[in-house]
Amino acid sequence: MDTEKLRKIITERESRPNSDLIKAMDFLQEDFDETKKNLVKLSRHLDGVENLYNQLLKEYKKRVK
Length: 65
Prior knowledge:
The chain is mostly helical. It contains two helices and no strands.
């Protein structure tokens, strides 16, 4: 579903048929699920990067004492 069609369904929701509302809700649910999945994946990646950085920083600090 393109953004303009979704926007039209949302703004005209009181006069649109249930089938349009269901299509819009399905689209939004899929978008929500995909976005959430990506955020969790990126959060885990960020945690891993931070952990690796901290390991390297710890080793570096030991060497420059």
